[in-house]
Amino acid sequence: MKILGIETSCDDTTVAIVEDGRKVLSSAVATSAKIFAAYGGVIPEVAARSHLEAMLPTVHEAMNEANCTWDDIDAIAVTHTPGLLGSLLIGTLTARTLAILHNKPLYAVHHLKSHIYANWLKDGELPEFPLLSLVVSGGHTQIISMNTHNHFEIIGTTHDDAIGECFDKVAKILGLAYPGGPNITAAASGKFSYYTSDITIDGQRESKIADIEPGNPNRYKFPHPKVENLDFSFSGLKTAILRAIQKELGLPISSPSSELYKQLTPRQISDFAASFQKTAVDIVIEKLQAALIDHPAKSVVIAGGVSANQLLREETARRLGLPVFFPEAKYSGDNGAMVASAAYYEIESGVEPTDPYSLNIAPRSILS
Ligand code: KG4
Ligand code: ZN
Fold first, then answer.
1. Distance 332 CA to ligand 1 centre (A)
2. Tens of pLDDT along 152-184?
């Protein structure tokens, strides 16, 4: 069964064709992320406009790359929740129109479910049930228990910021480009680019390249949040880093967070990035270890944009004591292939298609 998956919940316009939930026949990606690099975050209206321009060319690219005609496609799947309103609208309207036009069944898929199923997009060994999934993205930080396909129980969630959001906000304070995750890792490695000026009205921003010794992850100590049960909190960590930077620079806590990066040396940026990254990774691993006590699992599945993080990959594999699965790097962020895979396992579980004339989006919703 060949499913065309469309994912537009944030800033990437992505379309893929996947056979039987696992074999990626094509994966086309257009992104507006570069526009947002210097701003430190996504501007929703700009993202929606970029989706509008990129949507149909990306569908055609995916069809061509897979050498498919519409007769070859068995179903269409699309992210309908959660995400940015304008971004979700472009993807779902496209999917609805294609489903009606070509008379294909339409499946509306929850974004977090898709991230988890990115782990099925490969040959070889698969995660075994029961499993625990750690979903770490720009919008979510959750531990989800799965006893079988398409069955989800959220056993831990964040009370405030998501971990990816925290990477992005800390990066912004340190003068590193959006998306923060990979740039924090680069800064921690000692080889990175950092901003030296504010952004001008025409979107220009000066930067310099650092090539120094790797950052010291133990130079700055940040407290782990005291959150009960298996829940998370990341806004306190972001504030702890802000205070540590102000202290390091001898500035009062009233000094604006948006100005600090100009006074930091590359050495300080690198050490702050390494210390923050270590703390964030330790926090999620400690929660996963606690979760495994009451929810015995045969495997752990890491999912979402932050699952690309190399330190998280190494430390979970080393410390959890059971098989840990990660998506291939190209499927750890948002992509249409994971949507198609999730839809395939929905169909296998007996889920009925949705009505293309009435499918709605929901910017917020809980996976159930
Ligand atoms: O799943 P995703 O692509 O979009 C959402 O559903 O939110 O996740 C994006 C998030 C961003 O916050 C980005 O900074 C983070 O994933 N990210 C990383 C890395 N690559 C992307 N965080 C840590 N380390 C990375 N290598
Ligand atoms: Zn995502």
1. 8
2. 999 999 999 999 999 999 999 999 999 999 999
Atom of ligand 1 nearest to the CA of 180: 14
Q: How far is the CA of 281 from the centre of ligand 2 (A)?
A: 18
- Contact status, residue 96 vs residue 106, Cβ threshold 8 Å: yes
Instruction: Indicate which residue's Cα is closest to atom 3 of ligand 1.
Output: 333
pTM above 0.85, yes or no: yes
Token pair in block for residue 337? 């292939």
What residues contact 358, with CB distance under 8 A and at least 6 apart? none
Q: How far is the CA of 137 from the centre of ligand 1 (A)?
A: 5
User: In angstroms, rounded to a whole number, what is the distance separating the alpha carbons of residues 89 and 93?
Assistant: 6
Please report which residue ranges of 125-254 form alpha helices under DSSP H: 163-174, 180-189, 235-248
Return the ∠ at Cα 221 (arms to 216 and 222), rounded to 5°. Answer: 125
Q: How far is the CA of 71 from the centre of ligand 1 (A)?
A: 35
What SS3 class is residue 130?
Answer: coil
Residue with CA at minimum distance from ligand 1 atom 5: 138
Among 18, 264, 9, smallest CA distance to 118 is for: 18
Q: What is the tens place of the pLDDT at every residue in 67-88?
A: 999 999 999 999 999 999 999 9
